[in-house]
Amino acid sequence: MAVKQETEALYKAVPVDADIWKNADKKIRMGAPIKFKDGIELWDACVGYFEWVRDNPLWGQKIQQGVVVPDRIMRAMTLMGLCNHIGIHHDTWYNWKEKRPDLSETLKTVDSIIYQQKVELAAAGKINPQFIGKELGLVDKQEVTSTVNALVTSKIEINPNDDPTEALKKFEEARQKT
Q1: Is residue 10 classed as helix, strand or coil in its secondary structure?
Q2: Residue 8 DSSP one-character state
Q3: Mind listing the pLDDT tens digit for each residue in 114-158?
Q4: Fewest 10 Å CB contacts: which of 6, 80, 113, 153?
């Protein structure tokens, strides 16, 4: 009984992922993009996202000692999630790479942190490696070669009244075509 009460209390304390849009800054929803004056200001906003990811895991279920209990699942960082969190469109992130050299180091550092976190979580089996591998551009290609030996048959019409030499000739012609 105590486990059930603890489980229910834990579920009530867990943020509902269906409300993820609430993380987008109000300004982005109003159409006015947030501008960061320098890389330090952008970095501080990105750290806010990293902390949010750490503090807001996904929740599943697992069986522990025959009882179904909540299972804390590490949330993978994504560029889309980061952009939503700091209140910009992801196109803005990519545009900054070309048009904001003052943000270059911050942008590259954040990209590499997100990449590293996904690779390490996938390697540790904490998130689905196939899902993350596709997102990271890692492709599992297999080249398959095969030799096919097939039995090919041809229909030969031989009249019982035909000369046996003619019947043999028809058979040889059909065999050469295959």
Answers
A1: helix
A2: H
A3: 999 999 998 888 888 887 777 767 666 666 666 666 565 666 676
A4: 153
- Backbone dihedral angles phi then psi of residue 75, each to the nearest 5 degrees: -85, 130
* C-alpha to C-alpha distance for 121 and 117, rounded to whole angstroms: 6
The domain that holds 48 is classified in CATH as 1.10.132.80
The kind and range of the H/E element at 170 are helix 164-177
Query: Coil, helix or strand for 68?
Result: strand
- Count Cβ atoms below 10 Å from residue 76 Cβ, excluding itself: 19
Please check whether residue 160 lies inside any domain of the structure. Answer: no
Name the residue type at position 47.
V
Residue 110 lies in a domain: yes
Per-residue pLDDT reduced to its tens digit, 154-172: 666 766 677 777 767 777 7
Helices (H) and strands (E) counted in the chain, each on its own, are 8, 2
CA dist 130 → 30, 69, 104, 111, 138 (Å):
37, 26, 30, 20, 9
Task: Please indicate, yes or no, if residue 168 is contained in any of the structural domains.
Answer: no
Q: What is the C-alpha separation between 123 and 112, in angstroms, rounded?
A: 16
Domain limits for position 86: 2-135
Sign of CA dihedral 152, 155, 160, 165: negative
Tell me whether residue 39 is in a domain. yes
